[in-house]
Amino acid sequence: MELLRLATAGSVDDGKSTLIGRLLFDSKAIFEDQLESVERFSRQRGDDYTDLALLTDGLRAEREQGITIDVAYRYFATPARKFIIADTPGHIQYTRNMVTGNSTADLTLVLVDARKGIVEQTRRHAFLASLLRVPHLLLCVNKMDLVDYDRDVFESIREEFAAFASRLDVADLSFVPVSALQGDNVVQRSANMPWYEGASLLHHLEQVYISSDRNLIDPRLPVQWVVRPQTNGQPDYRGYAGRVAGGVFKAGDEVMVLPSGLTTRVAGIDSFGGPIDEAFPPMSVTVRLTDDVDVSRGDLICRPLNQPTVGQDLDAMVAWMTERPLHPGDFLALKHTTRWVRAVIRDVHYRLDVNTLHRDESASSLGLNDVGRVSLRVTQPLFYDSYRRNRQTGSFILAAEDTNVTVGAGMLHGPD
Amino acid sequence: MDRGRGVVGQYQLSQLQNIEAQSIHIIREVAAEFERPVLLFSGGKDSVVMLRLAQKAFWPGRIPFPVMHIDTGHNFPEVLEFRDRCVEAIGATLVVASVQDSIDTGRVVEEVGANPSRNRLQTRTLLDAINEHRFDAVFGGARRDEEKARAKERVFSFRDEFGQWDPKNQRPELWSLFNGRHRAGEHIRVFPLSDWTELDIWQYVADEHVDLPSIYYSHRRQVFRRDGMLLAVGPHVSPRDDEEVFEASVRYRTVGDMTCTGAVESGAKSPEDIVIEVAASRLTERGATRADDRVSEAAMEDRKREGYF
Ligand SMILES: Nc1nc2c(ncn2[C@@H]2O[C@H](COP(=O)(O)OP(=O)(O)OP(=O)(O)O)[C@@H](O)[C@H]2O)c(=O)[nH]1
Ligand SMILES: [Mg+2]
User: Fold this and answer.
1) What is the three-class DSSP state of A349?
2) Which residues of B touch A303 (CB under 8 A)?
3) B6 Cβ partners below 8 Å, 6+ apart?
4) pLDDT over threshold 50, residue A242
5) Nearest CA to CA, how far is B263 from chain A (Å)?
6) For residue A120, which of B40, B67, B176, B199 sits 20 to 30 Å off, Cα-Cα?
7) Is it the case that residue A143 has pLDDT exceeding 90?
8) How far apart are CA A169 and CA A166, in angstroms?
9) How far apart are CA B252 and CA B269, in angstroms?
10) Mean of the pLDDT values across residues B264-292?
11) CB–CB contact A70 B170 (8 Å)
12) Ligand nearest to the CA of A180
């Protein structure tokens, strides 16, 4: 069965957790003991109705404060698909957790409160989803019950958001009016909004076409681990284990190993279950090469006629996720594919205003939750593609050298 | 030379292949980046699947780290026997850390009362063993679908020098770029099965013919009912006067301490039978069978903060 990863986004209290709770509840994906526990908690707290947000807001602090603090992962399946849901927080303080949940998503659900319309946090999250290149964006205009299911409210939010999104890089954008609380248009089409002719939320999630979203063009295998059993049975076995990050590899292919630049061929592709004819993303495989070339962790296997960019001077959009600002001259640890290097920040070119998408070129640093264009130099060459072309070989994380905490996420620009 | 977009449809992984590939990726990252990883192995279904994934990750090489069992002394004998057989079959090194030793050396004090359990004591034994062996990465078989606090945890979960988890202050975790950096004395808990559900585990056990302890399948057993669960009569659990003992066909959905793990009535004899039962189940596995989670709403979160699995 096919897998769809989706994540929520949108401002605090716009109903993300309630919507996920409703989706799970109405598609009968809630176990009785989970429901009982949520009902009991709601009752004790004095809620008028069972708060379905409690299905994902599982931490003590979240329940006390009635907000989401960190991502909750939930799993459910319909006959059409399996789903992994990341319910993320709307509060600006926890933007890094929203980014965490959306970085692996195939689809982002952006929620808007129909009464409040689009607010700064809606724009910030939609922008971050587009920056992360989540291929599908679905805007849910929520709390339609509080605006009498009024079509004009929905249409005006839809127009305003479409205008904003046209300036973002969004491949596929759709809209659905819902009430998470009442369940309108969540699993079933709602009789309260006969003017809406589109699919229910669940139907949309089941139907959206996702299989073209991977890079099958550029063969890339970052080497994670060298398999050398050195047992009596297989004294000379040498395989290069890794997860295919792009393209298709098969036995006989001519390949090049970076950084050495040596060329050889694929002798075979192994797995525990037996040889594999073709390896493609996101498979984890072990590749044998015909020649005894020097390959170690951090190297990359590609094709001689299709190589990534090799370089130490990087240009990237960086999302900054910690209080201590990012300044030129800062040193950081950087992880790209299977390689950690040291990086120094050369320049902050501009900071983006998430509301206007205006580039503030006078900015010389990035603060918490800022996104900006940054140039860096790293201690060893990286083998990379632009993030636009390849999410695996085009991304990196930054960690503080003293605390080891992940403080930034980078999306590389390339020659194309 | 390269394939165009027209034929991409064929390059598809199923959902199970997809999460398997991710788990293998995680396990290899840990082996490559840490100095002293260890895999927690109880003989329970999740840890057995995790061990299989580790085998796959390094095949035809051996698993390059030891496995460790936190032995409460209240184990099902079938599971202990399975543990030893399994570890021997794949040639792994087994470390056993025993709660009884922690009690004997005065590190922890045995609970008293009507329902004494060693569940909570395990945390001390685990943290002591991590310190003693200087393990810097500890693989656990926990899944996010098991419990609401687990649903919140990162794949690479940072633990401070006291082994504590801080759920309000987790590191961002983007894409598949895991950050295992830590200082001496701190460690990372790693959960390769984060995205697996109970149903996925059973589907995988069926598809891959993974061997499991016999108690996972239907068998006859002397049991009695307590707190809505069926507990087995054994050396560490005895029924009170008002608890009637009867024989039933049961299987276990989870395998923990004999004192706090309940059985469910079932005739399921094979993984395929269990897939059908799990798909139709209306209770979570922990809700149905684990007394340790019934202490309070936030029992798991509280234990996890202290350093529990
Ligand atoms: N009337 C009405 N109330 C709603 C609806 N959806 C959510 N709510 C209420 O809005 C409040 C916030 O809902 P949550 O689901 O916690 O919001 P959230 O977006 O997850 O908030 P954060 O995660 O903290 O950003 C709760 O009181 C919900 O009951 C809706 O469709 N109609
Ligand atoms: Mg929420």
Assistant:
1) strand
2) 1
3) none
4) yes
5) 16
6) B176
7) yes
8) 7
9) 12
10) 84
11) yes
12) 1
